[in-house]
Design goal:
5-stranded antiparallel beta sheet; about 0% helix; about 50% strand; elongated
Length: about 325
């Protein structure tokens, strides 16, 4: 079978007939015809989590454990399952996390706890994850899910990231077939093996808002100023595009972000934006605090709604804290 796991000194494998076979305890790797069980529904994932083994089916989930007489069924939930087996990871002793039929969430063998997911993220996986071309991993506080978005390529092209501690989601455009954690590095496996998320390998990043409306949709406004609250880790060139509802209502601008320690310093010498070489994603930053970057553009942009696109050059990490937009109704009135 193509689905399997090692648990309690046994190997569990999903057979072509739908049964789950498990190896002998005394002779590791040896299977017997009598050592198998039938899941309640078609199994899509086998996930060990501590002293529990979760068998996730299309419409059910079973929890198994190693008893004195061999593998035994502990819990069976026939109301909750998943079609997305390779999204599941162990996140604790007796707890798994992944994409269920009802959404992303945890299961501890007794109850399901679903988490909120931004509406714009759902298009990345709903109806587009029937393929097995995807991979999930838990590394420290992060959940990584490599998927193939929009079926535009034969390989994965997007990594969804979820932080278990903060509850925030992120989207990274990258192509990997598998993700692993080794030697304090996050490893991506494609046609080659390489390290993800090192400072010098970051591609250019883009943040693009949906249509921003201030007040009534019928009330035309003019954007006069855009500022970014951020903690840049190094000197960083930033470009911005503000557009209205028509093509001719568009204006580009730029700005240069500096760490606070480098402002008003002649010929500053900046520390690297990693504390030490080859540190993994999530390390401390050398930038000491937040700064406001005021974007420079030549003319205001009128419109009933606006879209803002901000691009950061490659190889520079930055924490974005907020986006401030100033509207001008007249020379006497300005709304922020």
């Amino acid at each position: 079978g193509s689905i399997g796991a090692s648990f309690a000194r046994r190997i569990f494998i999903l057979k072509q007939d739908g049964n789950v076979a498990y190896s002998d305890l005394a002779l590791f790797g040896q299977f017997r015809s009598t050592q198998q069980f039938s899941p309640y529904s078609e199994a899509v994932a086998i996930v060990p989590a501590g002293d529990r083994l979760f068998v996730v089916g299309t419409s059910s989930t079973e929890v198994w454990y190693e008893s004195g007489a061999g593998p035994a069924l502990l819990e069976r939930d026939i109301s909750n399952g998943s079609r997305f087996g390779s999204t599941f990871v162990a996140v604790g002793d007796g707890v798994i996390f992944g994409l269920w039929n009802e959404g992303f969430g945890y299961y501890n063998g007794q109850e399901h706890t679903y988490i909120p997911v931004p509406y714009y993220l759902k298009k990345f996986y709903l109806g587009e994850m029937a393929s097995a071309v995807r991979s999930a991993a838990k590394i420290n506080d992060w959940y990584y899910l490599a998927i193939r978005k929009d079926q535009v390529s034969a390989e994965n092209n997007v990594i969804l990231m979820y932080n278990f501690r903060t509850g925030r989601w992120f989207i990274v455009e990258d192509s990997v077939r598998d993700i692993a954690f080794w030697n304090e590095e996050i490893i991506g496996v494609d046609n080659s093996v390489y390290v993800l998320y090192r400072g010098n390998t970051f591609a250019a990043s883009t943040i693009q808002t949906a249509g921003i409306v201030a007040g009534e949709i019928s009330d035309q406004r003019t954007i006069s100023d855009v500022r970014l609250l951020m903690e840049p880790s190094s000197i960083n060139d930033v470009t911005i595009t503000v557009s209205g509802e028509s093509r001719d209502q568009e204006e580009s601008g730029s700005g240069k972000a500096y760490p606070r320690e480098g402002i008003n310093i002649s010929s500053p010498v900046f520390a690297p934006y990693w504390n030490k070489p080859n540190t993994n994603y999530g390390s401390k930053w050398s930038a000491p605090g937040d700064v406001f970057l005021q974007m420079e553009h030549s003319k205001p942009v009128p419109g009933f709604y606006h879209k803002i696109k901000v691009e950061f050059s490659a190889g520079h990490l930055v924490r974005i804290k907020g986006l401030e937009v100033a509207y001008s109704k007249s020379s006497r009135q300005e709304d922020r």
